[in-house]
Amino acid sequence: MNTTDDISALIELMAKLPGLGPVSARRVVLHLIRNRSQKLQVLSDLMQRVAATARACINCGNICTSEICDICSDERRDTGSLCVVEDIADLWAMERSQVFKGRYYVLGGTLSALDSIGPETLRIPYLVERVKSEKFDEVILALNATIDGQTTAHYIADQLDGLCQLTSLAIGVPIGGELDYLDDGTISTAMYARRALQ
Amino acid sequence: MNTTDDISALIELMAKLPGLGPVSARRVVLHLIRNRSQKLQVLSDLMQRVAATARACINCGNICTSEICDICSDERRDTGSLCVVEDIADLWAMERSQVFKGRYYVLGGTLSALDSIGPETLRIPYLVERVKSEKFDEVILALNATIDGQTTAHYIADQLDGLCQLTSLAIGVPIGGELDYLDDGTISTAMYARRALQ
Predict the structure, then answer these.
(1) What angle do CA B124, B128, B129 make, to 5 degrees?
(2) ipTM of the complex
(3) What whole-number distance in Å separates Cα of residue B121 and Cα of residue B109?
(4) For residues A60 and A105, what is the distance between their CA atoms, to the nearest angstrom?
(5) ∠B134-B140-B141 over CA atoms, to 5°?
(6) Per-residue pLDDT tens for A137-178?
(7) Which residues have a Cβ under 8 Å from the Cβ of B6 and sit 6 or more positions away?
(8) Which of B19, B51, B63 lies nearest to residue A28, judging by beta carbons?
(9) Is the pLDDT of residue A1 over 50?
């Protein structure tokens, strides 16, 4: 391609971002260059600032710009319940649903013998310490309903046994879900966990 | 979302880029923050540089970092033929195909009475001047095979009539195309323009 080196390099870098490829990266870069004063400049300034300030909260693992994140330092949030999630994206998803008003703990992955990710990598010993010292009433294991997620949840449940009440998210038919398109596992779990209508 | 303001603003900006939405923007930003020293910093530095240096070539309209772009200033390219394209993305597509070794002219759009885009907006008078002064042997109208593209091509052909040889891209079955999935217009045009096999 006969563009100058910086532009080609920018397209190449953008093409490696998740969900983008060479074609969409070209389109994005062209769009940015066309609006370079309003968009490209603003976007790069913002990226500079985020690159300089973004860090992990030492308490929960969320991304923030200070040592302790907004959620951990928010006095109005319930200090009696802790929600354990796999990933920061899961924490953001929980926050969007606005259903949980307690504290979080981000594991940063799931246990995996193949990838040699053990309890220490996920800071599970630190989680146990935190549950002991902060005396939560309830710890919610909001891990993904995948094999890896559930294996990790079982391990954590073992470690936290007797320290507090442990719960996990309900498994069932998602809202808007059609039985015809759901897998057998979800349907049978939803059947076993059926509830009375009144 | 309980992230700090800069991170939310970055997600919001990214979500407005072509081909991205809120979900993919969140994924991209999270990926960038996770690799902030290797990716976010490099990407923002590159964007800063491109924002500062990118400009339109005064000759052809291509994007470059100098007054005259690499293609216009490349002495090895054929100065006898000019390829007129709608958009910079089309110029890049032509360059990727490596089939054309002459000079380009980017219109920057198509004629449109509704959007009040006239010949002056597309710098067609300047194109006519250029064809007159540079004495091209051939001008290839490589405009999109859409109604707007072809209308614009007809207008340009009228303006350049008698100044040089005028050609346009062949219309036919694309490579890998299946007749069953092609529109009637393409099939009938390909039929009329059929060629002898030897």
Answers:
(1) 115
(2) 0.77
(3) 9
(4) 4
(5) 115
(6) 999 999 998 889 999 999 999 999 989 999 999 888 898 888
(7) A46, A49, A50, A53, A65
(8) B19
(9) no
Compare CB distances from A63 to B7, B48, B54 and report the shortest one's residue.
Answer: B7
Residue A5, pLDDT > 90, answer: no
Nearest chain A alpha carbon to B94: A1
Q: For residue range A120-134, list pLDDT tens digits in order.
A: 999 999 999 999 998
Cβ contact, residue pair A19, B28, below 8 Å: yes
Cβ neighbours for B160, distance < 8 A, ≥ 6 positions apart: B127, B128, B131, B139, B166
Q: Given an 8 Å threshold on Cβ–Cβ distance, is A92 in contact with B1? A: yes
CB contacts, 8 Å: B63 with chain A: 3, 7, 30, 33
Structure confidence at residue A179 (pLDDT): 87
For B57-103, what is each residue's pLDDT tens digit?
Answer: 988 999 988 889 989 999 999 999 999 999 999 999 999 899 999 99
Question: A30 and B1: CB-CB below 8 Å?
Answer: no
B69 within 8 A of B60, measured Cβ to Cβ: yes
Q: How far apart are CA A63 and CA B5, in angstroms?
A: 12
Q: Kindly tell me the burial class for residue B99, based on how many C-beta atoms sit within 10 Å of its own C-beta (0-12, 13-18, 19 or more).
A: exposed
Contact between A136 and A81 under an 8 Å Cβ cutoff? The reply is: yes
- Residues in chain B with CB shorter than 8 Å from the CB of A88 are 30
Q: Does A94 touch chain B (CB under 8 A)?
A: no
Across the interface, whether the CB atoms of A65 and B27 are under 8 A apart is answered no
- Give pLDDT, residue A11: 93
Task: Count CB-CB contacts under 10 A for residue B84.
Answer: 26
Query: Which chain B residues have a beta carbon less than 8 Å from that of A14?
Result: 43
**C-alpha dihedral, A31 to A32 to A37 to A38, nearest 10°:** 80
CB of A27 within 8 Å of a chain B CB? The answer is: yes
Output the CA torsion sign for A95, A101, A107, A111: negative
Residue entry with tokens 């900006």: B13
Contacts of B53 in chain A (CB under 8 A): 4, 6
Residues 100-159 on B with a CB inside 8 Å of A are none
